[in-house]
Amino acid sequence: MQYYSACPKDCSDSCSIISTIENNKLKITGNKNHPITSGFLCLKSKYFVDAHYNGRVLYPLERTGKRGSGEFRRITWDYALDILSKKIKKIMEEYGPESILPVEDTGNRGIISYYFPQRLFNPLGFAKLNRSICSKAGSLALKEIFGTSIGVDPDEIKNSKLIVYWGINPAWTNVHGWRLAKISSGKIYVVDPLITDSAKSSDVHVRLNVGMDVDLILTILNILYKKGYDIGPAGKYALDHDPERMEKMIGVDKKIIEEFVDDLITLKPLVVHIGYGFQRNLYGAIAVKMIAYLLAIIGQEGRFIYDVKHRIDYTYVSGENDKRKMINQADLGREIIKNNIKMLIVYNHNPLVSLSNQNLLRKVLVDEDIFVVVHDIYMTDTGLYSDIFLPATTFFEQEDIVDSFYHDYLNYNQKIFNPMGEAKSNHDLFVELARKLDLKDPYLFEDEKTIIKNILRRANLDEEKFFRDGFIKIDRINNKINVNLNSVLKDLENYRKYENNGFRLLSPTHVQGMSSQHNNLYSFDTLAHMNPSDAFTLGIKDNDLVRIYNEYGSIKTRVKVDESVQEKCIVIYKGSWPSIYGWNVNYLTTDEVQEQYVRGSAVNTTFVNVEKL
Ligand SMILES: Nc1nc2c(c(=O)[nH]1)N[C@H]1C(S)=C(S)[C@@H](COP(=O)(O)OP(=O)(O)OC[C@H]3O[C@@H](n4cnc5c(=O)[nH]c(N)nc54)[C@H](O)[C@@H]3O)O[C@H]1N2
Ligand SMILES: Nc1nc2c(c(=O)[nH]1)N[C@H]1C(S)=C(S)[C@@H](COP(=O)(O)OP(=O)(O)OC[C@H]3O[C@@H](n4cnc5c(=O)[nH]c(N)nc54)[C@H](O)[C@@H]3O)O[C@H]1N2
Ligand code: SF4
Ligand SMILES: [Mo]
User: Fold this and answer.
1) Protein residue with its CA nearest to atom 6 in ligand 3
2) What is the pTM (predicted TM-score) of this model?
3) How far away, in angstroms, is 29 Cα from ligand 3 center?
């Protein structure tokens, strides 16, 4: 038998997958007919099948030991939902619905898995997580310059003479987009402080110092001004950014900056794929804003890739209630206390791996009177802190459709297996909970097939074609570009370069990791990558044990002496589980936020000290 699957991971490529069952075992390959997937899947996909069969929790559990101890007893779904519904009613009565917080992210990006649970939370008026750790700060920055954060279709890569990857490592995080760029005839630039795999096979690597993007752009504007360009209201800040004076501070040779400027003005059309990783720093949104500003100055308004919005009625799937109280994700520990949160309903998210300032967050969960429910496929670190743990299905056990935050195809995900053990999908969990809460509105109980058909019908999509091919092209909402250059003035006025205080800690994605997923089955790279010259100064060799610490915490790990890392920087990849290694990078990362930009994460503005042990 052959089935269509759709990868629902938090990855721009949103692949269409052909799943087959051979000798009773699932096999997956890329769907050759899909224009983006092009018949191949990424390295991480090799874990998906194993992760379906292995390492799962299959029954509901109730905590019997202290939080984090892993002591649980098996319970029935009926008992679990009973406790849950009684708790919800009691907390709503005593403290109000706003003290109950669903803590959810993009662990599963299926449209039903992601949006459907909100159908229950909206009418009940629960608090809502402001999902500020990923890309939102940059979205707002783009909107302030262009009136929209929705850029061009990746198809445009084929026609672009210049393709700039700014603060993104597509060879690892957007492999299908990277392939499009590599087979195009466009000249490829990578703007990144690390010598990433993308940088290695680009035409030009602009290896700037971390956090120097705004100064690099001001220097580019300075050169453009000298070439007779009207550089707009930011001009006064660019005048002192003479390339000769700036090259050392930015860390890029003047000749490379000049070549970059020449290419930016001659190789048109161009496209700039703006990364998410690099905008997670205190001035990240401002950097995104300045990229947009630069595009406008050179007459390439809107020629970027960042967000996508499709003509799909997401509100139909989620319901709506714009009065819900917003709780910020990037500094969740502090927010829980400030807002008197009494209950967390966690699904699609692993906050005790993924969020900054873990020491605080864990302390809050231990000290405060908070009831924690976790719905996950595996016993994650967050699961270990739950009062009730509920088993979730893998994407092979649920019917869903998945769109992309990069391309314009909607993929079909067929249910191949019945859930293993007593696992339930997100859809089924919240249907059952609605039933236990004695709610009657039929909208809360709609089945997946009906929802999928309604989505297709509302978007005027050909149902027969969709189910036959396993994917269909959908319309992108192309908001009109409406340039407002003046909006950078408030940013440049306040823009301050922070003191370089110790080592700058970066925690980017790893080629094999999918955020925090599957570390229970495969080991992650937990080394501290460090430049040879820093290692020499500190007397550190490969594999030496070091202590890395700052005001947030202290960890011990081994070093990888690595030329691709800049001096005065440490790289530790994101996503590893503290329950396996005793720590992860988020024991050190700051939960300071970009106040003016949706309180977005500033995780990459973390400074640490290093000591050889
Ligand atoms: N393999 C894999 N793919 C993934 C993920 C995964 O975990 N693994 N996670 C997914 C998710 S959730 C996201 S948000 C995306 C993130 O994917 P990306 O946007 O690629 O983000 P990062 O890997 O965090 O950072 C990208 C690059 O930014 C560079 N950078 C850091 N600071 C600066 C700076 O100041 N200026 C500039 N110009 N560059 C800087 C880093 O060196 C790094 O190489 O990837 C998605 N895809
Ligand atoms: N230091 C540092 N930290 C970071 C980042 C960084 O760059 N540096 N990046 C941040 C970014 S961009 C992101 S997006 C976050 C991602 O952080 P998380 O949102 O925690 O990401 P994931 O690990 O993809 O998924 C979370 C959980 O969802 C579960 N899951 C998968 N499918 C389902 C399902 O169908 N139902 C249920 N109930 N659960 C399911 C998975 O098993 C996993 O435990 O990490 C952030 N953390
Ligand atoms: S993680 Fe990304 S590239 Fe890999 S299979 Fe899923 S969508 Fe495709
Ligand atoms: Mo993300």
Assistant:
1) 7
2) 0.98
3) 11
